[in-house]
Amino acid sequence: MEQTGLLDLDNPIHMFVLHWVFLQRINYALHEWMDSFNNHPLSTEHNWTPNQLWINGMLREDNPLAIGGLDDDPHDTRFYGEDLDGPTPFEDSDNCVIVSPVHIPGINTEELVFQ
What we know:
Blueprint: H1 12-38, H2 50-59
């Protein structure tokens, strides 16, 4: 595209559109690679996959993260993991997000149409 003149690497609009078009495809390819890597056999680990090794490690009784190994038996699990007396993330804010407009030099943003 650059050789034919369709893509100008110095144009911020061209770069934004390039990322917009290919980001999802790149993320999908990375996800496929991750799935295949986590399920391929490792010869040094008796042909177990990384997923099998992780599950085996989690199920071992000497693992401190094993079920029942972290805490004594909690009596009330409705609020397990929450500190009811602790601060909340929205205590000091009105939960509003302000996004400032993007300014691209040399481009009239009123003429752009996003769909």
